[in-house]
Amino acid sequence: MEKLKRAIFFWILVLMFVIITPAAVLYAKGFRFDLSRGVFVHSGTISIKSNPTDIVVSLDGKVNDSKALDKINNSYNVMGLMPKGYNLSIGADGYQTWNKNIEVHSGVASEFWNVLLVRNEYTKTDYNTTGIEKFFISPQSKYIIYTANSDDGLSARILDIKTKEIVGLFDFADWNFITQDRRENIEWTPEEDYLSVPVQKIEDGKTQFAYFIVDPNAKTSFNLNELLNNNDISYVRWDPQDKNYLFYLSNNSLYRVDITNPADSKQIAQDVSSFDLSKTNVYYSVVPHELVYKNNLDGSGTPNQITSSFPEGITRNSRLIAYDDSRIAFLTQNRDLYLFNQGEFGTYTRKLGYDIEGIQFSDDGKKLLYWTKNAMSVYYLRNWNVSPIRTENSIEDITRYSEEIKNIQWFKDYEHVIFSIGSDVKIIELDPMDHRNIMNLPKTNSQTPLLGYNLAQERLYFVDSKDASTSLFSIILPEPTPFLGIYTPPNN
Fold it and tell me: pTM to 2 decimals?
């Protein structure tokens, strides 16, 4: 009898080994038993990269134990999930919650690498710039020039961002800042040596336009039109390599001139409707067919024709924006947007939209953000092989509002867009899965706030009301991320 008991016990152990060992091996290899189907299936994974990095992940309302989160390279991997649909929620204390309905697939990682959480409340930095209307950050993020119009004319002050002190004050009596329909702004030289300030005034019933050149170091300024004895100047742009030279349009011709020696002036091209500058070249479109040419910055080379044709019936260009030789956008006087894109799989010249208010390339040149008064869209110039995957020459409509959308601009990751609706400041993600998460940034007291995101500082600047006037404020966005476990705050 004793032998029989031992035999039974032995064979029970053998049977358990035969059953449990394969199951344990399958479990270790990522397989899970699906009770509904009665079979083993390969589990799936959710991979998350977020800002901030200290997050709480919930699936179908159940918070995942932090010990179950595999943190690798500042990303979280929730593994061993049964393939099916889940409601994924990502939150953190003091932040707005991100969520999507997602599908986890067998043997595949569902990737969410651009999750951004926005604070419920932000600490605002006040720069005490009473009366500010417009502001422009210098290329090296050291200074901000801001303007204000009064009955006496336009005043411009230069603010040292770090010390918050005014280091330059310039008054342009009887002149006002140029109106928005001219689509021109204050331009800094790359090394912050000079600025050009576009202005206008009404005299004898006619609007006159001019440009003042400001030297912030010498604290002097002069009228460019008077220096060149030319009242027909538009679209002034600084040479990217030589601080003393600038480009401008006059009488349908493109010129380059040395502001310290006006006799050193050169006509780059004739019959030019618009132009743009890269670090080494000047691009310009020539009427009547709006073909694009490229030349050296000093105009010493032989012009190189970039485009060979353009859609029939196009009206005159008002702006040309060149990312490089293969990616060029055109905004016509009728506000139609066209794009020349020599992609990896084809060459496309197409109309993207009409009634366009503005456009902006992403830093890597793979996306073009463009918008009307009520909607914004993105065009993909190259394949994007990271989730969410996008294809070359495709368009996605991001969002639409009945109210006018303003202050549209890329966020630092080029996977989010900052914008404002009335006094509300928002940020929206590009990922269209399930829905696009929209989060609220600090609400302003103004119905027409002015925003500017500075990538180098990772700060969002905005004008808001203060003590019956206005002032400039900023917040840190996104949250500082740790490097080797150490938090490094962004530059002030």
Answer: 0.89
CATH level 3 topology of 125-487: Methylamine Dehydrogenase; Chain H (2.130.10)
Per-residue pLDDT tens listing for the chain (492 residues): 666 666 665 566 556 555 554 544 444 444 444 445 444 445 888 999 999 999 999 999 999 875 555 555 678 888 888 899 999 999 999 999 999 999 998 888 899 999 999 999 999 999 999 999 999 999 999 999 999 988 899 999 999 999 999 999 999 999 999 998 888 999 999 999 999 999 999 988 899 999 999 999 999 999 999 999 999 999 999 999 999 999 999 999 999 999 999 999 999 999 999 999 999 999 999 998 899 999 999 999 999 999 988 776 677 889 999 999 999 999 999 999 999 999 999 998 899 999 999 999 999 999 999 999 999 999 999 998 888 889 999 999 999 999 999 999 999 999 999 999 999 999 999 999 999 999 999 999 988 899 999 999 999 999 999 999 999 999 999 999 765 555 555 555
CATH no. for 43-116: 2.60.40.1120
Measured torsion, CA atoms of residues 7, 12, 15, 17, in degrees rounded to the nearest 10: -110
Which residues, 6+ apart, have CB-to-CB distance to 43 below 8 Å? 30, 31, 32, 79, 80, 81, 82, 83, 106, 107
The structural domains of the chain, with segments of one domain joined by +, span 43-116, 125-487
Q: Which helix (H) or strand (E) holds 76?
A: strand 75-81
